[in-house]
Specification:
Shape: globular
Number of strands: 4
Radius of gyration: 17 Å
Number of helices: 8
Order of helices and strands: EHEHEEHHHHHH
Structural class: alpha+beta
Oligomer: single chain
Largest sheet: 4 strands, mixed
Helix content: 55-70%
Strand order of the largest sheet: 2-1-3-4
Distance between the termini: 52 Å
Length: 221
C-alpha cells in the first residue's frame, strides 16, 4: 500500500497534530512541506485537492482529507483500529472528543493573538487575548488534576493536539509553568515520538511572534 502523502508546515499547530499522530502510529508517510509564507498552498494543483487550501491535508490512496482533528481520528480508526490513541469505548471516546473541542477553543485563542501580528502589523498582544488563553488553560489544568493525560489514564490524540497548541503558546511567551498539572503532563510527553520535532516547529512560531512584539520573557513579566 502506498504511503500517506502529508502536506505539512512545521510552524502550524494543527499540522503538527497530524505529524505527531503519524509518528505515534509509526505510519509510512511522504511529507511535503508547503511554503505558506510564499503562498505555495495557493497553487492550482493544491487548491484542486483542497479548495480551502489549508494544512494539514492528507492523501491516502485517493482519499483526500483536511482539518487536523478529523485527520488524526481517521488515521487511528483506519490504520490502527483499537488503538488507545482514539478509543472505541463510547465514554472514553467522548472524553477525548471533549478535550479536542477544548483544544479547538485554545487554538482559536492562539489564532486571535497571531493573526493581527501576522496580517495587520500588531506590535503587542492585548491583555484580553492573553486572559482568554489563560482561562482555557486554567480549565484544562483543573480537568487534569490527578490524571496523567488530558483524557484520562492513556495517551490519546487529545494529548497530541493539546501538545501542538500549548507548546506554541509556551514558545510565544505564555506562562505555562504556572499551571502545575499541565507542566507535569508536558514533561511526561517529552518521551513520545515526534516531541522534539514538534518543539522545533513551536519554537519557530514563537520566535516569529516574539520578533514582532518584542517579548523576551513571558507574558507575565
Amino acid at each position: 500500500m502506498a504511503p500517506i502523502k502529508f502536506y505539512h508546515h512545521p510552524m502550524s499547530p494543527p499540522s503538527r497534530l497530524v505529524f505527531l499522530t503519524i509518528k505515534n502510529l509509526n505510519l509510512d508517510a511522504n511529507i511535503e512541506v508547503l511554503d505558506l509564507f510564499n503562498k505555495a498552498q495557493l497553487s492550482p494543483e493544491f487548491v484542486k485537492k483542497n479548495p480551502q487550501h489549508t494544512v494539514p491535508t492528507i492523501e491516502d490512496n485517493g482519499f483526500i482529507l483536511w482539518e487536523s482533528r478529523a485527520i488524526a481520528s481517521y488515521l487511528v480508526s483506519a490504520k490502527a483500529p483499537g488503538s488507545s490513541l482514539y478509543p472505541t469505548d463510547p465514554k472514553k471516546k467522548a472524553v477525548v472528543d471533549a478535550r479536542l473541542y477544548l483544544d479547538q477553543a485554545l487554538q482559536l485563542a492562539l489564532t486571535a493573538i497571531v493573526f493581527p501580528i501576522h496580517t495587520q502589523g500588531a506590535t503587542s498582544i492585548e491583555k484580553d487575548k492573553k486572559d482568554k488563553a489563560y482561562q482555557i488553560l486554567e480549565n484544562l489544568n483543573t480537568f487534569m488534576e490527578g490524571k496523567p493525560y488530558a483524557a484520562g489514564n492513556e495517551l490519546t490524540i487529545a494529548d497530541l493536539a493539546l501538545l501542538a497548541t500549548i507548546s506554541s503558546l509556551y514558545e510565544m511567551g505564555a506562562n505555562i509553568p504556572k499551571f502545575k498539572n499541565i507542566m507535569s503532563w508536558y514533561k511526561k510527553l517529552e518521551s513520545i515520538p515526534g516531541f522534539k520535532e514538534n518543539g522545533e516547529g513551536a519554537k519557530g512560531l514563537g520566535d516569529y511572534v516574539k520578533s514582532k512584539v518584542s517579548i523576551s520573557g513571558t507574558w507575565d513579566d
